[in-house]
Specification:
Layout: H1 3-39, H2 49-65, E1 70-73, H3 79-91, E2 101-107, E3 112-115, H4 119-130, E4 133-139, E5 145-147
Antiparallel strand pairs: 1-3, 2-4, 4-5
Helix pairs in contact: 2-4
């Protein structure tokens, strides 16, 4: 082989090594830039799903615990819904219960209403409550909720 070919092969090898080193340095520079941005507070640190869930629950608890928000029990069905419910019982030939109705998995927002001086606070508290469910709801014939037992998970 001629000396020019050796020189060309050596030059290509040096260029390939230079490209690899440049790429490695570029990646390290990008990573350092991200770390600096996080340290300066510009970019939030990526959170796990568990951390996000904890924050969401914390915000819901804060919304419910506000002093200006008050809660009251509410009838579970309006008059029209109750009449439809009674008609459905009649069509399916189920007897009207004399003392209690039992409903599974009822959203707490159906039986608890919120009021507040600021409507947005009441809305936020109601959304937080409505996202929760009770396992069983005992309901008096007057459509007033009586108790909401909770079944511990893993036992049923």
């Amino acid at each position: 082989m001629e000396p020019i070919h050796y020189a060309l092969i050596i030059a290509l090898a040096i260029a390939a090594v230079a490209v690899l080193v440049a790429r490695l340095l570029y990646r390290q520079s990008c990573e350092l830039g991200r770390q600096n941005a996080v340290l300066r507070g510009r970019t939030p640190i990526r959170k796990t799903a568990e951390q996000q869930q904890d924050e969401r629950l914390e915000r819901q608890l804060e919304a419910v615990m506000r002093e200006r928000v008050t809660f009251r029990a509410s009838r579970i069905m309006g008059r029209g819904e109750y009449e439809l419910f009674r008609a459905a019982l009649a069509v399916t030939r189920q007897p009207m219960p004399a003392s209690w109705y039992v409903f599974p998995q009822v959203a707490l927002g159906q039986i608890i209403r919120t009021t507040a001086a600021d409507d947005w606070q009441a809305d936020q508290a109601h959304r937080s409550i409505n996202s929760k469910r009770c396992d069983l709801l005992n309901l008096r014939p007057q459509r007033q909720p009586s108790c909401r037992p909770r079944i511990p998970r893993g036992r049923a």
